[in-house]
Predict the structure of DUF177 domain-containing protein.
Amino acid sequence: MKWSVPQLMVFKEKGLHIDEKVDVSGIKELDRECNIDSVRVTGDAYFSKEAITFRLTITGTMILPCARTLNDVEYPFSIDATEIFQLVDWATFQEDEEIHKVKENTVDLIPYIKERILLEKPMQVFCNKDDGPAPATGSGWELQTEEQESTNQIDPRLKDLEKFFDGK
């Protein structure tokens, strides 16, 4: 997923189709919760005088810890991404477009693929198992379900505050 600009220009007339399995296991260095070995990247590259535009679909499965039990949860994803690389310095683009400058005459998609995956990562995932490495109770606390929470039990330490409103 790394090309020099002259290598890419060979595909200018006939187009460039991408369908590769990409190793993104280094994503664990950026986010230690996110575990992915490889993803499938498909798409096409479109050429103009000023830029190369990659329209990609990134699919794979990330393994994340359950927010409740810390069990591993498989989270499948599919991301549509557009990455634009500026070939010449004098070109002008819309302000809202995110344009990447070509560094050392090479286009490397891997860092942008990793970035898109991390942006897709959910805040929390849950598994169907009730037990796991994380405890369900502890000193002064216990895990409650939504039904248990909705009973509106008053904390016994705050029970005396109820008398404050009775006199008014």
Notes: The chain has two domains: 2-120, 137-166. The longest helix spans residues 110-120. Strands lie at 2-4, 16-23, 38-47, 51-65, 72-86, 99-101, 106-108, 137-138, 141-142. The first strand starts at residue 2 and ends at 4.
